[in-house]
Amino acid sequence: MRKILKATISKKVEEALITMNHTLKDNFVARLKKAQAEENSALAKSIINDVLHNQDIAKEGVFPLCQDTGMVVVFADVGYEVMIEGNLEDAINEGAANAYVRGFLRKSVVAHPFKRENTKTNTPIIYHERRVEGNKIHLKIAAKGAGSENMSRVFMLKPTEGEAGVIDAVIKTVREAGGRACPPITVGVGLGGNLEKSALLAKEALFRDLDDTHDDPTIATLEKTLYEKLNETGVGPMGVGGKTTCLAVKINTFPMHIASLPVAVNIQCHASRHTEVTL
Amino acid sequence: MIRLKTPLSKNDVKTLKAGDQVLISGRIYTARDQAHARLKDEKNLAINLEGSVIYYVGPTPEKPGYIIGSSGPTSSYRMDELAVPLMEKGVVAMIGKGERSDAFIEAMQKHRAVYFMATGGAGALLASKIKSSRVVMYDDLDAEAVRELEVEDFPCYVAYDIHGGNLFKHD
Ligand code: SF4
After folding, report:
1. What is the pTM of this model?
2. Whose CA is nearest to atom 7 of ligand 1?
3. Rounded to a whole number, what is the distance in Å from the CA of B101 to chain A's nearest CA?
4. Residue ranges per structural domain of chain A
5. DSSP β-bridge partners for residue B114
6. Which residue of A has its CA nearest to B20?
7. Which residues of chain A does B102 touch, with a Cβ-Cβ cutoff of 8 Å?
8. What is the ipTM of this complex?
9. Segments forming the whole domain that contains residue B89
10. Cα–Cα dist B102/A176, whole Å
């Protein structure tokens, strides 16, 4: 058994959240630059330029990338040989609260659907835990803004709708989102499972490395097809038109019922804040 | 690039066309969902809305020594209905992000008002154009309080003009 202190976990989560709210990943920035160079529309170029300029200012550490510093989502893979005194979820919540309070991030969480009083700490986080082999804890941490989350959808397709049905569902979601989801977007697609499993797959797909390739060739091809088709929609950066609607499409799959073909489409705006921490 | 100074005149608004890039300087006010819901029936308005510009933003808290935190636009569609009573009170321009309803566009044209888009997610860049900030109403709403901002060369794009031009229609 390996023992990990609760305070160690909280501190790591706190640091990760503050850093990710001020920095985009290098390969994300590289894709933005490439897209800007390839855009024909002056307006689209100008918008991508704003986004690039913005991340230059944000990475100095004073102003977060976006004023919507998101609601925190954590996928925790916890090794069977790890021992934590106390509750892991509590430790992560504590780290998140510290990040938002001490890090001058916006507290965007309200407790009740109608009363809507702010919890003042940006917690609770949304927490998913799995037990895995080994003596480590691996955390995937996202801060997800509402603009793109509100535009995300789940479709329960008929199995016979197949690949064409999936393509339609994704394109429809992205078109309807338009500029409101702050494109250029990244699209996480969850294919299979059931209602909630598909949504989880889509959310976790957004953590994949932008430059990876799916090991199932059929899915890898579908990712490429969707990427191309989405960039032909003409939505463009912030909805002003152009070739740059999305920077990547990532699809995660899971077995499903013979009568189901669930498709979840989780849209990620250009303020893509995802990180991974191993303890 | 068009330079605008607030408060905006009827003529300023008339000359703007969807797709124009503008730099706004002067005083603007912030308001989001909750502030709109209150402003619509407000009896004690602490601000003058005539010719005013409303910015849909809920900034991050300012760090010590800084004027404001990250300050990018929020999605405007949530304010579509609530914006109408404010236009009746004199608001001539709104800054936000994303598409809005046909009903809003119609009301906006009727009141000879204009809708600007600021680049969503560019909160750090836009904060650097804000020269002063103070809460003028609804302190209890925290990030959603109404603030008076002094901005300089605040970059926006004309999204909907009064002549029917629409930045988001481009097929
Ligand atoms: S959708 Fe993303 S980039 Fe746009 S305002 Fe929300 S968090 Fe920021």
Report:
1. 0.95
2. A145
3. 12
4. 2-20+64-144, 147-272
5. B93
6. A43
7. none
8. 0.94
9. 2-160
10. 15
